Amino acid sequence: MKKLTKSNDRIIAGVCGGIAKYFGFDSTIVRLVTAALALFTAIVPSVILYLIAAMIIPDASPKKPEDDGPVFYESDQK
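^ PspC domain-containing protein, sequence as received from the core. Prediction below:
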């Protein structure tokens, strides 16, 4: 089951990126649609909805370093 979370690919709070990932759209398209809606609705309602979404939508789980494979440090190499 898919879960709506904020994106780590974020510009402000990750809301548009998270919505884009959830619905399978490009995040740039979602950001442009959000900006257009903000302009056509006198900005205030869109900003309020965005702030509410930023507070309600949970953060994506942070990427763990071990997901990238082994990490080698200079002190490990002899």
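The chain has a mean pLDDT of 84.
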